[in-house]
Amino acid sequence: MAKIDDSVKKKVPELRFKGFTDEWEQRKLGEVSSSYSGGTPSAGNKSYYGGNIPFIRSAEINSDRTELFLTIKGMNASSAKMVETGDILYALYGATSGEVGISQINGAINQAILSIKPNEGYNSQFIMQWLKLQKQKIVDKYLQGGQGNLSGSIVKDLQVKFPHYDEQENIGTFFKRLDDIITLHQLKLDLLKEQKKGFLQKMFA
C-alpha cells in the first residue's frame, strides 16, 4: 500500500493499494444498488411455519443457519421476500440497527432487514465494509438516543465514495480476510475460555 500526498487526500483515501491513482466518485447508495425489505407471516398460523425456507431475522444476518423456517404458504401470505447468498443484509430495527453482513444462505427476510444488491460495477464486500465503518455515525444521526428505526429511504440516501471496481474488489477482499482471521481467533479464544473454566472447576476443591 502507498500513502497519498496531502494535496489529494480529500478526493482519495490516505492509504491505497499500489497501482490505483484515480479519484473516487461520490454516489448515493440508492443510485448504485437495488434494495428491499421483507415481512413476517402471522405467528398465529402454524401452517406458515415449519417448512424448508430459512427465515432470516436481524440477529442472523451473519449466520449460515436460522431458528425459524417458512412454508411456501407462509411466503405467499406475507410480504416476506427471498434473498440469495452474497446479498448485503442491513438491520433496520431495534438493538441490531445498523448491523450489516453478507448473506450466507438463500432465505427469506422480514421487515427488519434491508437487502441490498449492488449494480454491476459495484462490489458487495466494499459496500458492506463501508456500512460497517459508518454504523455509529448513522445510528447517532438517525436514531435519537438509540430509539426508533432506520429505513430503506435513509440507507438509499447515504453518500458513498467509490473507486474503480478493481480497487473496490481489492479493498473488500482485504477486509474480508481480516474479518475471517478475527473470527478464527475468536473461536480459538472461546474454546480456551471453556477449557479454562473446566480446569478451574476440576482443580479447585
UniProtKB/TrEMBL annotation:
Domain Type I restriction modification DNA specificity: 22-192
Residue ranges of the TM segments: none
UniProt-listed GO biological process terms: DNA restriction-modification system
Residue stretches in coiled coil: none
Pfam families with a match to the protein in the record: Methylase_S
GO molecular function, one term: hydrolase activity
Key word Oxidoreductase present: no
EC number of this enzyme: 3.1.21.-
Record SUPFAM superfamilies: DNA methylase specificity domain
Top-level taxon of the source organism: Bacteria
InterPro entries xrefs: Restrct_endonuc_typeI_TRD (IPR000055), Restrct_endonuc_typeI_TRD_sf (IPR044946), Type-I_RS_S_subunit (IPR052021)
Claim: Magnesium is one of the keywords in the record: no
This protein's UniProt keywords: DNA-binding, Endonuclease, Hydrolase, Nuclease, Restriction system
Family, similarity comment: Belongs to the type-I restriction system S methylase family.
Stated name of the protein: Restriction endonuclease subunit S
